[in-house]
Specification:
The chain is mostly beta strands. The chain has three domains: 137 residues, Macroglobulin (MG2) domain (Immunoglobulin-like); 463 residues, 7 Propeller (Methylamine Dehydrogenase, Chain H); 134 residues, Immunoglobulin-like (Sandwich). The chain contains five helices and 59 strands. 39% of the residues are buried.
Amino acid sequence: MQFVKHKRKTTAIILMLILTTTMAIATILPTTQAQVLPTFLLLNAAPNPIGVGQEVQVNAFLSKPPIGAGLGGSGVMYQDIRVEVTTPDGQTSTLGERDSDATGGVWFSYTPDKIGEYILKAYYPGQEIASQGVVYEPSESEEVTLLVQEEEIPRYSSPPLPTEYWTRPIYATNYAWSQIGGSWFGLAPAIFATTGAYDAMGNFQPYSTAPNTGHIMWTKPTHFGGQVGGPISADQMSQYMSTTIATNFFEPIILNGILYYTEFAGPNAAKASWKAVDIHTGKMLWTRSAGETGNEVLRMGQILRYHSIQEYGSWAFLYACESAGFFQTPTFFNVYDPMTGVLIFNITGIQNPSFLMDFDTEQEGTLVAYYTSGGNLVKWNSTRLMMSASFDQITIRPSGTYNWATGIEWSIPLPTTIGTTPIGGSLGVAARTDDVILLRYAPGGMFVALSYGYQITAGYNAKTGEKLWGPINQTIPKYEDFGIVAARDGYYVMHNKDLNEAYGYSLDDGSLIWGPIKLPGNAWSAISRSAQIAYGKIYIYDFGGYINAIDLETGEIVWTFEPRPAGYETGYGIYPLWYTSSICDGKLFVSESHMYNPPLFPGAQRLVINCTDGSLIWSILSFNGRVNAAHADGYMIEWNSYDNQIYCYGKGPSATTVSASPKVSVNGDSILVEGMVTDISPGTEEYIQTARFPNGVPVVGDENMSAWMEYVYMQQPKPTESIGVDVTITVLDPNGNYYDVGTAITSNGFYKLAFTPLVPGEYTVYATFPGSESYWPSSAVTAITVEESPTPSPPPTEPPATMTDMYVLGLGSAAIVAIIAIGLLVVLMLRKR
């Protein structure tokens, strides 16, 4: 993921707003003599106190704005305001002299490098403004003491990036979140489409994360899709139409986490409506007719950061036009509010090239277009057009009708010769980048880029229109299919499709840097190829299923991805790659598919490739030859020809439940903790899913995600093996100790774990699913009580004998003794006989 930082000036916004309220229309004082007016100069330094080495903002301003000053910068301002600074050791320096703005103020940045007290004082020398008939007296501010200490004062720290499921809007002070909150503007047409590509340089989205697994958030149909059913034959050529180049199906634009697209109807692609869908929730936010004319298609989106003395912030716009036939230009843009779909203004007499957004200007997000007209290279600027009718250019309030020509920033005549030799044709825009516009003339066919052995090229500064180099005549392969495949970051790359060779050129001077480089491929590689540039490499992929990553600086082939074998499933023996691709978050998204000819072969995949080493990160069933994927807010949006549905991929929310039994137990007994972890992404709430999964759609491990999503959303067989996720069981015991008692692994979303509490008392039991690449984390809590074990009972003691018992026992004993004695006497008497 790439995060581009912009340095911005710190301005005295509060001061400007306060002073603006006091401004009035310029008044000529009713006297022929100059009126002498007193002035009151004020000074502020903040923060105060400040740490040594930290920046201080110094504002000096007069109590009233200058008479006759216009908010757009016109008129005479207060002149030569300065601030003198005396350091703790007595050294003096001066900030300024500087003229004021229309509010009467100036500002400076100052960084103290010593600890102690600094003394600041501002001076205004006075001046005469003859046109207004006034003389301003000089004035001085009171001294301001700036205390500089050793310790730095704290700065605001943006909340960290989210660690749980999130939605728009992003809170205004969550600055770090801009790294993940990108949009997909649709500034260029995808192949044979009206829109859908990121910008004129290609489909590289540097301002968003992208899915690391094939987890599906939601789906939404655009047409009848999939197999028709009897009596229509069931084969690879009988599905509801989804691949023809002559019909529009789906063309994405994403602003502020909202997907906008035109709903097309029937084989003629009639414009049925416009849709606005929240990509985080899948909820339809609004739908309306296809523009004010009822026949408009959404063309592109824009977010403009507009700063002036009167206002600051960003506005979003949706552009639409009536679609024209192939290679034709529409005649107008209607511009709408993306929140409501309401028309704001329109532009007539338009050109419709691929656009770029300019982020290197104060008005970030300005749409810029480059094209040739009447032998000139023309730059058009959307902010220039919108400001052409604004009140003194202090606000941006576009309304009514504008002519395209009012937005032309410059028009530069193009050369027609190299020295005295005629070029032989007209230079045209071959590539648009942020820094250089590449002009090229090369005679050849319309559809087949047949080379006649030479090209004429030139480079122009994209900001100023200054010619950087050229035109130059360069030799290229003759009678071979040779054309530009990508341009960005100071390079443009050409490819010979007949020989599968790549050439790298410099946009700085037009020179050949490397090449020809022979690329790995097969016979099918000559059918078609396309490319994207990002991260210092160009990724060239072809119909033969090969992807070759080439280092832009050296021409070295960094890695090669080889095609997947297809057996009998395609007519090629491999799965081909079509033009539609995108790059986001270090990943290259390509589609195994084709167009023009049948069949809609089975088994095609969306492939997600690691841009660094060419390894496969994940893949999932998808046939996506019609339009590239779009990326924003961490999600990938694509349209699948297999069922004519929009798919939203990304990390989804989860839900965890927990229970423990028995709720009351005896110390030493085991406790059973159990529960569920389920996927609660928006798509799981559709009736088809709740009917199939009445207890919720179980979460599964990342390793199993694509097969599981194909089962849940694409009517594919249930995976025979389902890898679960870990759930950690933690307790807070009666003594306040917090510790893990074990980790359970889910099966079909269900988990269980037994443990034995260590001491009696009340326990709080937590079940935590820590999340994965597919799901945000979730947790649940319950409680149990463990009672003391009862004290063991002593063995029973025999009760003492009663007197009766003793008497009976005594008699019994005496009787026994008597019987024994009599027996002995009888024996003795018998012996005497």
